[in-house]
């Protein structure tokens, strides 16, 4: 396995682990490898030997071949054309680790969200009010709010023409936000 392939395998390992809802500690327990080493693999700081990669694949209930195939499919340069579905612009689509969506206009404050993964909200224009963990946060142009995974929240635009950028891990935010309609 060459260095570039090893790096891509690290991202595939992370995606698979998250898909299964496993922690690094759980994968370490299953594989017999250390948490720091697994973290280094995922963060592309260490190259696993073929034997270590086999152990990781077994712990993730897959094969090294599938991890390598996922790594190969991870290489992409995608262009997403502007579209507008009721004020929601998808900035990144498909198989990416991140999802970025731009909301323009109103949001139903009665609808509450909760995601398993972290989320960042950035106010491009206008202002929003976000209720999270029983507290109201007023954000204006250029402000950012970080929400860790599991935090219940809701938001609404407080100024007409507000544009809000929301970034999270793709596999969870897309499904959660799409179901709001």
Automatic annotation (TrEMBL):
The UniProt record lists the keyword DNA-binding: yes
InterPro entries: Cro/C1-type_HTH (IPR001387), Cupin_2 (IPR013096), Lambda_DNA-bd_dom_sf (IPR010982), RmlC-like_jellyroll (IPR014710), RmlC_Cupin_sf (IPR011051), TransReg_Diox_bact_type (IPR050807)
This protein's UniProt keywords: DNA-binding
Gene3D superfamilies, alphabetized: Jelly Rolls, lambda repressor-like DNA-binding domains
Pfam name, any one: HTH_31
Domain HTH cro/C1-type span(s) in chain numbering: 13-67
PANTHER family, sorted: HTH-TYPE TRANSCRIPTIONAL REGULATOR, METHYLPHOSPHONATE SYNTHASE
Protein name stated in the entry: Helix-turn-helix domain-containing protein
């Amino acid at each position: 396995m060459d260095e570039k392939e090893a790096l891509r395998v690290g991202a595939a390992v992370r995606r698979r682990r998250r898909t299964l809802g496993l922690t690094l500690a759980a994968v370490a327990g299953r594989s017999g490898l250390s948490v720091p080493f697994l973290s280094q693999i995922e963060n592309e700081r260490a190259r696993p030997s073929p034997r270590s990669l086999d152990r990781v694949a077994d712990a993730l209930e897959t094969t090294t071949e599938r991890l390598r195939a996922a790594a190969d499919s991870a290489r992409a340069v995608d262009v997403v054309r502007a579209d507008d579905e009721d004020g929601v612009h998808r900035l990144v689509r498909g198989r990416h680790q991140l999802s970025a969506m731009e909301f323009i206009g109103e949001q139903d404050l009665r609808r509450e969200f909760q995601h398993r993964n972290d989320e960042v909200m950035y106010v491009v224009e206008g202002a929003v009010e976000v209720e999270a963990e029983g507290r109201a946060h007023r954000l204006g142009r250029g402000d950012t709010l970080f929400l860790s995974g599991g935090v219940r929240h809701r938001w609404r635009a407080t100024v007409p023409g507000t544009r809000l950028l929301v970034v999270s891990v793709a596999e969870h935010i897309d499904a959660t936000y799409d179901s709001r309609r």
